[in-house]
Specification:
The chain has six helices and ten strands; from the N terminus they run ββαβββααββαββαβα. The protein is of the alpha+beta class. The protein folds into two domains: 75 residues, Ubiquitin-like (UB roll) (Roll), CATH 3.10.20.740; 136 residues, 2-Layer Sandwich (Alpha-Beta Plaits), CATH 3.30.70.20. The strands form three sheets. It has a five-stranded mixed sheet with strand order 2-1-5-3-4, with helices on both faces. Strands 6-7-10 form a three-stranded antiparallel sheet. Strand 8 and strand 9 form a beta hairpin. It starts with a strand and ends in a 6-residue tail after the last helix.
Amino acid sequence: MAAKTLTIDGKQISADQGATILDAATDAGITIPTLCHLDGVYDVGACRLCLVEVAGINKLLPACTTRVHEGMVIKTDSERLRKYRRMTLELLFAERNHVCAVCVANGHCELQSLAYSLGMDHVRYDYRFPKWGVDNTHTLFGMDHNRCILCMRCVRVCWHIEGAGTKNVSGRGSGSQIISDLNQPWGTSDTCTRCGKCVMACPTGALFAKGATVSEMERDRTRLEFIVTAREKKQWIA
């Protein structure tokens, strides 16, 4: 496969043809913040936190879905990017009910960690305080829609790693929510295999294992990566 030469943050690197800017940056040891990206599943560019500047293009581009081209000059960190990323994080916090102090993912939450790393110490927008519920009908897991950021990681792993197709998205805009099957209680789903991959994929406390209390919901993402790698190398037939 032909290699492409490009420059990221002043560093000249090479990347495989077909690689994304995020892939190239990661291989070069350059960190780009993400929330919807998850190793092992395809990218959808939902969170917009991985936006980067590309020379010659006025608009910001999502690093996770933009393919590299020969001679690209890319900035992953600038005042403009920091401004947009902080704004995006603040809007995510304002849109739903993220109360970190009583969340099962407190201390193990990617949304919380990004807020810390980007210096977000307050939210400038009005909180919406929507009335979202918690689905505790499943025997093993729960879904707290108040913590959901609609990254769709759970949907993608359910469809493309487990192959169950239980999770999906219903609604539009801020009224969207993750549903099970035809918008029924998770515990009544006939398609759910109880594998827990959606829970492992979740970046916040939206999906959790029952019995987990404040700060106890840690994720083991290496299990998802192992499954994908094994399938790609045909170590077993899926």
